[in-house]
Task: inverse folding
């Protein structure tokens, strides 16, 4: 009876017997599982969206909300709610994190904020009844919100509530970029999954078990080999700290790899980059911001503020103004503003010269500059709230005794005009 060399190669759960030229190759199903990425989801567009939402939250947390009338505070308690503690259960940071999350990812595609019990509450869910759906044909009346749930309590806010009694915050162009990213996200996910699987296949660990054995082809022999592969070889090739019994005539060695997975790795990285770029374009964020690239930061940061943060801030302040004041108050100078000038870190020594020019040119008062730089106001000194002009910012032709010397210029008649 001839003795021939037998090789057992594990690849994708299959075992092949026979390595000699004259050997018969037999494929057997074996319960040796290879770690793979078939269940992994490459939701890189979602990751990019959460990164963008994080930037929006960080920006808004550094942007106080001002409610002013003729340049003065008119509603201190409302500013307290928006800037300090919206409700007894949330800080401002928690409140705006939930607000942005609803605006970016909410099922209703917006955030509904309901004033109730001298607080501001973000609704978990609600039922919108649009005016155009009413049978009484009062299409011009405000929409109403019903079944408003807050903190997991269904119908916590007794409805119906009119749209002019609540704040509804929406991302600009919500429908457009939501639909685009929803359709593209699935495509990117499939491409990334295919590239990752190709990378895994090219770099999979392959082993060969060589043994001297008699090939009888009986079911008992197949069962014995399967059991050995399942109970001994499988745990060994998968484990970090493992041992395997090798009997006489057996040898286990790693199959030689004459391939490279570099191209597949590059494919995965490129697909991720394209997914991030799509999100950045939809949200008008500089791509380098999402990628963490700080090159040319000043220019990139200005674009980030102008086309991403400022539109969100504008949407918030417009909604607050529309629901917090009357048209008469608005016409007389009452406004709400999300002050995004505080987003940039302020180094007191770096802005000292610029602050001096702002005060000297009557653009800001000294106390306004102190507030901007994070310092306390100086109370009890009226000049700290006055607009001042330094001599180097005087009007053209002005001087220290501008009023006293008026008309003394010969071109204006000089002293003769004064005497006459």
Result:
């Amino acid at each position: 009876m001839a003795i021939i060399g037998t090789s057992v190669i594990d690849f994708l759960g299959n075992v092949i017997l026979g390595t000699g030229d004259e050997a018969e190759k037999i494929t057997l199903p074996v319960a040796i599982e290879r770690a793979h990425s078939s269940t992994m989801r490459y939701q890189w567009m979602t990751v990019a969206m959460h990164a963008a939402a994080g930037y929006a939250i960080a920006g808004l947390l550094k942007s106080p909300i001002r409610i002013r009338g003729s340049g003065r505070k008119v509603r201190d308690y409302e500013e307290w709610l928006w800037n300090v503690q919206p409700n007894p259960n949330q800080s401002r940071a928690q409140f705006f994190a939930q607000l942005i999350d609803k605006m970016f990812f909410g099922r209703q595609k917006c955030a509904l904020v309901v004033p109730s019990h001298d607080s501001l509450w973000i609704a978990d869910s609600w039922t919108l009844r649009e005016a155009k759906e009413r049978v009484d044909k009062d299409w011009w009346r405000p929409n109403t919100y019903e079944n408003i749930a807050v903190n997991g309590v269904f119908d916590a806010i007794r409805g119906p509530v009119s749209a002019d009694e609540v704040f509804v915050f929406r991302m600009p162009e919500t429908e457009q970029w939501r639909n685009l990213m929803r359709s593209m996200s699935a495509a990117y996910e499939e491409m990334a999954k295919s590239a990752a699987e190709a990378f895994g296949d090219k770099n999979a660990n392959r082993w060969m078990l060589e043994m001297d054995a008699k090939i009888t082809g009986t079911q008992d022999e197949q069962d014995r080999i399967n059991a050995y592969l399942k109970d001994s070889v499988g745990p060994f090739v998968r484990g970090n700290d493992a041992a395997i019994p090798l009997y006489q005539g057996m040898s286990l060695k790693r199959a030689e790899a004459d391939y490279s997975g570099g191209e597949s790795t590059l494919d995965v990285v490129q697909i991720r980059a394209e997914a991030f770029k799509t999100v950045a374009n939809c949200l008008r964020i500089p791509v380098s911001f999402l990628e963490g690239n700080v090159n040319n930061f000043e220019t990139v940061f200005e674009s980030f503020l102008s086309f991403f943060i400022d539109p969100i801030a504008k949407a918030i302040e417009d909604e607050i103004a529309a629901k917090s004041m009357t048209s008469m108050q608005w016409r007389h100078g009452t406004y709400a503003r999300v002050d995004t000038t505080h987003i940039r870190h302020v180094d007191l020594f770096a802005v000292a010269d610029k602050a001096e020019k702002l005060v000297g040119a009557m653009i800001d008062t000294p106390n306004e500059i102190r507030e901007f730089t994070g310092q306390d106001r100086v109370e009890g000194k009226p000049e700290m709230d006055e607009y001042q002009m330094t001599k180097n910012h005087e009007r053209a032709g002005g001087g220290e005794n501008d009023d006293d010397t008026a008309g003394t210029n010969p071109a204006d008649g000089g002293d003769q005009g004064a005497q006459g």
Observations:
- Residues 346 and 374 are 8 Å apart (CA to CA).
- Residues 4-33+207-253 form one domain.
- The chain has twelve helices and 15 strands.
